[in-house]
Every structure is written in structure tokens, then in C-alpha cells.
Amino acid sequence: MRPREQAGSLCERIRVAGGEALLFPVIAVGPALDPAPLESLIDRLDDFDLAFFVSPNAANYAMQFILPRRPWP
């Protein structure tokens, strides 16, 4: 399962390989509806030794909040 904007290249590779791909996105990925919890954690990042993101999408969206507020180490 991938959002539409991330599934197209896989579908194209399947078609090029002779397969039949059906683009049927069932999830949407976007920024947090309420950024307050993330902003609170950003303010406390120095309290942690490690930041772990569960997916590339999570990392990309989180970094959009983190980088404007903190310098990269």
C-alpha cells in the first residue's frame, strides 16, 4: 500500500516488466493535523539520545517541522 504519488513508479516498473498493475491507492499521507505534540517534542530534542521515525514519510514530514526550529547537528 502506497499513496498515489508514491505508487506510480512501481506500477510503471511492473508494466515495463510485462505485468499488469492496478493503481488503487487506499491511504493518504500528510502532515499531522495537530502539530502541537510534535512541536513540544522538538523543543525537548536535547533530552533524547535518539530520534526514531517509523517510515520515510514520517521522517520527511517531521523534518519539515524540525529544521526551521533547530540547526542540524
Give a written overview of the molecule.
The chain has 73 residues and is an all-alpha fold. It folds into two domains: 1-28, no CATH class; 31-73, no CATH class. The protein is 48% helix and 0% strand. It has helices at 4-16, 36-43, 56-69. The longest helix is centred in the C-terminal third of the chain and has 14 residues, at 56-69. The two termini are 34 Å apart. The model has no long low-confidence stretch (mean pLDDT 86).
> Largest sheet at a glance?
none
Strand elements, count: 0
How helical, in percent, are the residues?
40-55%
The string of secondary-structure elements, in order, is: HHH
CA radius of gyration is 17 Å
Strand content: under 5%
* Total number of domains: 2
The geometry reads as elongated
Q: What is the distance, rounded to the nearest whole angstrom, between the alpha carbons of the first and last residues? A: 34 Å
Low-confidence stretches: none
Number of helices: 3
Structural class: mainly alpha
Mean pLDDT comes to 86
